[in-house]
Amino acid sequence: MTMDGGQTRRWVKDGALGAGRMRYGADYNPEQWPREVWRDDMRLMREAGVNVVSLAIFSWAHLEPRPGEWDFAWLDEIMDLLHEHGIDVDLATATASPPPWLTRLHPEVLPQTVDGTILSPGARQHWRPTSPIFRDYALRLTRVIAERYAQHPALVAWHISNELGCHNLYDFSDDAARAFRIWLQERYATLDALNDAWGTAFWSQRYSEWDEILPPRVAPTQRNPGQQLDFERFSSDAVRDHLRAEAAVLAEISPNVPRTTNFMVAGNVREIDYASWVGDVDFVSNDHYLVPGPAGRDDLSFWANLTGNLAAGRPWFLMEHATSAVNWRSANTPKRPGELIRDALTHVGHGADAVCYFQWRQSRAGGERYHSGMVPHAGPDSRVFRDVVQLGAELDALAPVTGSHREQARVAVLFDYESWWVSGRDSHPSDRIAYDVEVQGWYRALLDLGVRADVLPVGASFDDYEVVVAPMLHIVTDELRARLEDVVRDGRHVVTTYFSGIVDEHDRVWLGGYPGALRDLLGVTVEEFVPLLPGERIALASGATASTWTERITRVDHDVEVLDAYADGDLSGAPAVTRRRVGTGTATYVSADIGRDGAREVLRGLADDVAALRGDVRAARGDLEVIVRIGADARFVFLANRTDEPITVARGGEILSGGEPIGDIAEIPPRGVIVLQTGLEQVGTAPLRETAAVLG
Ligand code: GLA
Ligand code: GLA
Known about the structure:
Blueprint: H1 5-13, E1 23-28, H2 35-48, E2 52-55, H3 60-63, H4 73-84, E3 88-92, H5 100-105, H6 132-149, E4 155-159, H7 174-188, H8 191-198, H9 225-253, E5 259-260, E6 262-263, E7 285-287, H10 296-310, E8 316-320, H11 339-349, E9 352-357, H12 383-397, E10 405-406, E11 411-415, H13 417-423, H14 435-448, E12 453-457, E13 467-470, H15 478-489, E14 493-497, H16 519-522, E15 524-531, E16 538-539, E17 545-546, E18 549-556, E19 560-565, E20 575-582, E21 585-590, H17 595-606, E22 624-630, E23 635-641, E24 647-650, E25 654-657, E26 661-662, E27 665-668, E28 673-678, H18 685-691
The structure holds alpha-D-galactopyranose (2 copies).
Organism: uncultured Microbacterium sp
Domain Beta-galactosidase trimerisation: 409-609
Active site: 163 (proton donor), 320 (nucleophile)
């Protein structure tokens, strides 16, 4: 690729991350290896079809071995070597892990945990996001790197820091306290407004001076919920400020090269509201690590789906995943046969135009020596490397997919980071409920029904969705309430569940009975939550089972139908699942934790009225996940086998990857994905159902 500004801009604007080809590669850490290995790396990268690497992510100590003393010789050499081999570079600003000299000179940049512990150097990311001293050093490094490489022909993107906030997001230091107060002054303007928002009349917490306010450090008992929520928002914003500061330096020196930072849109990272970061990158990139076991595939689909919708349907960059095991769970199992390719292609289905791994060559030393890589400890004559080479070929065949967008589904599953934070707070009716589990339960129920759904950030428009599923949507503002009411008024459908609509944006309870802000929409009033004890189960009349949570519904409006009732315990006979009808629209309320199986039956019931819930795949029984991307002149249908058995489908298009045609049918191997290309005329549910009719 030439580096003239126009072309680069187009690269971003069209979302054509691969400029007509899928990007494929890894984090590359050549500073961990002697020169002779570099040559071997180039040969093996070519063999695998690697065409991009992320470089210098953790190289600060090599690039600036002493304050202000630079050593770029090795980076010059590897940049040139990569370019000679046709491999492009997503070049890091190298600021993720400060070198030992920096924290020796300035121990005051080290972050402080909630209980006052100062984190030491010796791992990585040991810096306070709000430290002015750290910021100065980081921006100086960013500037020097940008000036040196802005014109390098291998450079295709800037990689700002790395997984910002992964280990240092919640910093409770005095720097954080100062920055928190400024953030609060901007938000509230007056202390009266802050005192009101935080409910400081409780427990004598009223503030008379801004300087009295601290981060919510360890305290004798339950800390102020409004303060905790604002500190969480502040912390997500503070790390974003660091992103903005580095981005500004890059924009000044290298305005035409797109900038990104790798998000962590995944089940183990809830602290960052990525919906508020999207505007600060030229293209979205994400890291995702497979959860081992049966739920892993659907978990991957869920987060990839959210990533695609954070990117507003445009192509995004899968910056990291693992070829096989990670090294940070309690038991780190290798991927099963087929999973390496399946996982990559599932991300591609959800909009990734780049498939990259952490990391190219498995490290010999250091904390991640047992984390898989594209080239494992065993070397290239290995199962993993053979899969890596095969994936390279499959991605090559998927070149026509690049630049295409996700095709919008007709069902949305709302996702709200702040409801995740707040519903999981201490001092709640139960600590046994989990937002992410509840939301994923409904998503998996839709997959089970063969229904394509978009996992949608709550701030995105849901005007074009026929069904909006909003599980445990805990925080509902007046504005969000109105948007949900509009859905039903328009003749569309809302489904929501327990512990939704309970609080406002300050975690203050809406009065008059639960589900608070959604009481009118749903036409029910709940007087008391009735969480269940460990092991306790309550049967519903339909045969569904409630665990962890039930509620006492005491009022049901005249236009509300009771669909299911509690069948034992103190609530026996009381409504459990209700549906209010407004014209052709409906608002369904599920007051209990009935799990994925219960969710599936509720959705199946609604499907009598709602075609969008009847499934995209004829007779699929949920065995396939159907994902669709749509390009200028073709449609790409990804059929991912969710089972461990082969599945035969009637194919309505040309097979781009993942299987050989056998006449008019195709077989999808266990855990396999096939990608069909069809004409644009085959848009809409019915033709797709023909495209992917499951035969057996
Ligand atoms: C994160 C980091 C990588 C690496 C991987 C290991 O995603 O960005 O540097 O540590 O985790 O899984
Ligand atoms: C104690 C305290 C009260 C209140 C209750 C709650 O009794 O004195 O202020 O916190 O616990 O159970």
